[in-house]
Amino acid sequence: MDLNSPAVVALIAAVVSVAGTLLTVRATVRTNHNAAVQTQFQEIIKKRIECYPGLWKIHIRYETNWTLSGQPKTREWAEQYAQELMNFNLDGGVFFSQPVYIKFHELRSHLQHAVESTQPGAEVSPELTHKIRQSVYGGPGYGPGISTHLKDDLGSYQSASLARASKK
Predict the structure, then answer these.
(1) How far apart are CA 56 and CA 146, in angstroms?
(2) Residue 95 gets which letter from DSSP?
(3) Which of 57, 75, 137, 161 shows its CA 20 to 30 Å from the CA of 101?
(4) For 74, phi and psi rounded to 5 degrees?
């Protein structure tokens, strides 16, 4: 076989051209996919910006302000707190990141336990109110609470989800 023949040269050129085209198509598909993912994350971030303040208000009302005002954390407090979280979850829960959802579930479980283990009108045990507070705000030796994850999702504490997603 003569490697200098016009037919062999044309065949080699065709193979190189097809390989180059395939690599270009692959790069284009990857670029378009990454752009679509970025657009999707941008839309999710916009929705989080709209809905997360509602969840934040629930925590401020039932945890921070309740504690600062010295109101007792009773079974009824736990019921109201849990109910507001459940109502919020109906519309806003779909936009939770996984870390937010994990802490949300943990908080909801602690509140449910408080309702089940506390008599009507009685105060929730200090141990359980501490767990509820840690679920919201975190603490030493415990790790971040839902509030940290909410802020992180919006870019306040660390790189926003958009930046983290692009590194994967």
Answers:
(1) 9
(2) G
(3) 75
(4) -100, 180
